[in-house]
């Protein structure tokens, strides 16, 4: 009974994201207590929760469908960084916003994509595989893609980014997978609640950044919202389009659309706060991304559910 409640609460993640965004802007004090020093800790908990839900079977499943998994991961790191860089130029974004938008566009798919894939009647197992593989690939790709695309705005230390990702992504995920492998029964009990705990920490991260950067967001909300919305909308559309053009079936195309369109905004926020502290606006597109892709993902899910 309790597990069903937490599952329902997790599936309402898009609603929580929107509510948190409004509360953070109206009552910043509701989230300012969280503090930037705890963002890395929160992200580690999120990744640990992801690891607890993974088993060797998930990785074997990815190996059994290499073309479909490779499609989603390739489009993730080809389309989104290029889109982020292009939109930053198109909108002539200030340096901090441009770096933040490019950074989040270079991040892997987020765990929220698995929720949206389920709601959209896409291939949930494939979604989990794509998210897992893109998260592992991000260890190398996110730092160096960020350096390549954002280097024109500000010096980017790719190796420092890589070390951070190893610490807050790979280490917790590995611990989670190991716990699932060697302490299966205990991990199974915890994993019932871990997705909800992950959602809780994501909205805390988003709420803190939006509260801390409230004045900047309200000052630039039009250009910020337009740039972030265009980034994710482009990811959803192009992810589906290229999958269909390459001959993949509908379920794979839906999954590709969702994986490409939804980013690990929590990772982007943590990296922006830690490595681009000289650019106060850098974390803002990352936080706004978490809200935007949830709203758009929910709309996409409804559209796909109504489509045969």
Descriptive notes:
- This protein is mostly helical and 308 residues long.
- Helix content is 81%, strand content 0%.
- The protein contains 15 helices and no strands.
- It has helices spanning 2-11, 13-26, 39-52, 56-64, 66-90, 95-105, 112-119, 124-150, 158-182, 184-191, 194-212, 214-245, 250-261, 265-275, 283-306.
- Helix 2 runs parallel beside helix 11, helix 3 (39-52) crosses helix 9 (158-182) and helix 6 packs across helix 14 (265-275).
- The chain is globular and about 45 Å long.
- The model has no long low-confidence stretch (mean pLDDT 84).
Summarize the structure.
The chain has helices at residues 2-11, 13-26, 39-52, 56-64, 66-90, 95-105, 112-119, 124-150, 158-182, 184-191, 194-212, 214-245, 250-261, 265-275, 283-306. It has 308 residues and is an all-alpha fold. 55% of the residues are buried.
Write the layout of secondary structure elements.
Blueprint: H1 2-11, H2 13-26, H3 39-52, H4 56-64, H5 66-90, H6 95-105, H7 112-119, H8 124-150, H9 158-182, H10 184-191, H11 194-212, H12 214-245, H13 250-261, H14 265-275, H15 283-306
Helix pairs in contact: 2-11, 2-15, 3-9, 3-11, 4-8, 5-6, 5-8, 5-12, 5-13, 6-8, 6-14, 6-15, 7-8, 7-13, 7-15, 8-9, 8-13, 9-10, 11-14, 11-15, 12-13, 12-15, 14-15
């Amino acid at each position: 009974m309790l597990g069903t409640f937490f599952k329902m609460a997790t599936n309402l993640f898009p609603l929580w994201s929107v509510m948190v965004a409004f509360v953070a802007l109206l009552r910043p004090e509701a989230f300012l207590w969280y503090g930037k020093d705890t963002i890395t800790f929160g992200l580690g908990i999120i990744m640990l929760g992801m690891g607890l839900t993974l088993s060797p079977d998930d990785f074997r499943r990815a190996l059994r469908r290499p073309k479909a998994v490779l499609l989603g991961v390739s489009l993730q790191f080809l389309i989104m960084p290029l889109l982020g860089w292009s939109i930053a130029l198109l909108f002539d974004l200030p340096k901090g916003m441009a770096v933040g938008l490019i950074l989040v566009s270079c991040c892997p798919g987020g765990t929220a994509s698995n929720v949206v894939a389920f709601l959209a009647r896409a291939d949930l197992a494939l979604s989990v595989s794509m998210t897992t593989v893109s998260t592992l690939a991000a260890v190398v790709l996110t730092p160096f893609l960020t350096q390549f695309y954002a280097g024109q705005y500000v010096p980017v230390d790719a190796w420092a980014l890589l070390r951070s990702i190893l610490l807050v992504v790979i280490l917790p995920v590995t611990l989670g997978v190991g716990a699932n492998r060697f302490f299966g029964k205990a991990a199974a009990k915890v994993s019932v609640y871990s997705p909800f705990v992950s959602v809780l920490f994501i909205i805390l991260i988003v709420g803190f950044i939006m509260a801390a950067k409230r004045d900047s967001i309200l000052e630039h909300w039009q250009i910020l919202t337009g740039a972030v919305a265009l980034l994710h909308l482009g990811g959803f559309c192009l992810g589906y389009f290229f999958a269909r053009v390459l001959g993949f079936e509908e379920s794979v195309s839906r999954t590709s659309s969702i994986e490409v369109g939804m980013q690990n905004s929590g990772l982007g926020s943590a990296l922006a706060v830690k490595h681009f502290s000289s650019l106060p606006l850098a974390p803002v597109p990352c936080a706004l991304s978490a809200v935007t892709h949830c709203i758009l993902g929910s709309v996409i899910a409804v559209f796909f559910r109504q489509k045969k």
